[in-house]
Amino acid sequence: MKLWGGRFTKEENQLVHNFNESLSFDQKFYKQDIQGSLAHVKMLGKQGIITTDEMNDIIKGLEGIRVDLDNETLQFDNSEDIHSFVEAHLIERIGDAGKKLHTGRSRNDQVALDMKLYTRHEVEEINDLLKTLLNSLLKVMEENTETFMPGFTHLQKAQPITLAHHFGAYFEMFKRDRSRLDDIHKRMNLCPLGSGALAGTTYPLDREYTANLLGFDGPTLNSMDSVSDRDYLIEFLSALSTIMMHLSRFCEEICIWNSNEYRFVNIDDSYSTGSSIMPQKKNPDIAELIRGKTGRVYGALASILTTMKGIPLAYNKDMQEDKELSFDAIDTVKGCIVLFTGMIDTMTFNKDIMEASTKNGFTNATDAADYLVNHGVPFRDAHGIVGQLVLFCEEKGIALDDMTLDEYKAISPVFEDDIYDAISLETCVDKRTTIGAPGPDAMKKVIEIYKEYLA
Ligand code: ARG
């Protein structure tokens, strides 16, 4: 059944139908479409726009369709879209009363509502998945406040940190991602239903009532904007892109840490793959694939921004393009978060290798300079002296910790016996006690804050 055959004299061209249809993908939100119709029809009944009997028949019919779709006893056909499909089946099931469902409504406000309901649910789901990931990160942090590793800048060893501190950086990122989702949820939570095609309707609709039934904070305030606003999707795809960017950075680090050269971590066999030719290989495919899939989520954002940029008010068919790319991006991000969490949960850390790596890269050079500063040497001079120490060590192939006191004194007489303690890994990390720093005391305070946040 077509919703709009009346003024047409020719059959639709098959290619036109195929090009125009959206049922093949908007069937994804059949639940939301029926949920929106139920709210609309309850409102029509309450307002006396249809009779109570008609209202009850329609409700029963819609619920039956939902159950049959859930059980897959009702199959999708060649209807134009999910809205036509549901309406056609309603009329087939309950007769003339079904023809009143669409009173005071357009597919324009209907689809705006469906997409918003669907997206709102996915915003919540992804927020929950991120919470699970944060719990996994926190567990690693709690167990590793004293697991030393090198902190890097320019991918060069810089200063010693701990594994807890490194994971804490990602905790912050995903925590911000969640707060972005909260913001989006708040801003998008206004109901477009009742906006009609673009100019509202003359029926005495109660928009507050339907908004309330559907869990919105209230109705939208401009019917033209309501049917043509996709800002919330752009914001959501932007937030999803940022989540993917964070996952991708983390995956990149895991690939580096998992490399034969680093061996900081072991990705569990269940999250690794082999090579068809090289028997020795255990590849970090999952981390690489998450990193790779970031591209398609960015692509969805660029795509919808481009689609929306030239659309005059109000609804235009261009907007149908919002669906496939959003669905793909949402499903991709959900899959990536779940897989990433599983990979973290099963990953093990080679703490000895991480500690040895921290010791052999002059990560305590800054602390050696600070030692001199504490003994009255201006920092710029101290920097130069420690530079000479590093040069000396590099030539001999040793660490600062391995130099004799005589060797130290030959470069600067300021050095005394307590230099060894001052540049020990323990001191280098422990002394960093300002909030946000890697010192275990500072870290434990932050972990407490994170625990409260997740509680
Ligand atoms: N499938 C359409 C979409 O996704 C539904 C709205 C159709 N409205 C219209 N005036 N043709 O945008």
Automatic annotation (TrEMBL):
The cellular location(s) given in this protein's UniProt record come to: Cytoplasm
Keyword Cell membrane assigned to the entry: answer is: no
**Chief localization class?**
cytoplasm
Family annotation (InterPro entries): Arg_succ_lyase_C, Argininosuccinate_lyase, Fumarase/histidase_N, Fumarate_lyase_CS, Fumarate_lyase_fam, Fumarate_lyase_N, L-Aspartase-like
Keywords, A to Z, come to: Amino-acid biosynthesis, Arginine biosynthesis, Cytoplasm, Lyase
An example Gene Ontology CC term for this record = cytosol
Domain annotation Argininosuccinate lyase C-terminal: ranges: 362-430
Q: PROSITE patterns of this UniProt entry?
A: FUMARATE_LYASES
**Which top-level enzyme class is recorded in the Swiss-Prot or TrEMBL entry?**
lyase
* Entry's family note: Belongs to the lyase 1 family. Argininosuccinate lyase subfamily.
Name recorded for this polypeptide: Argininosuccinate lyase
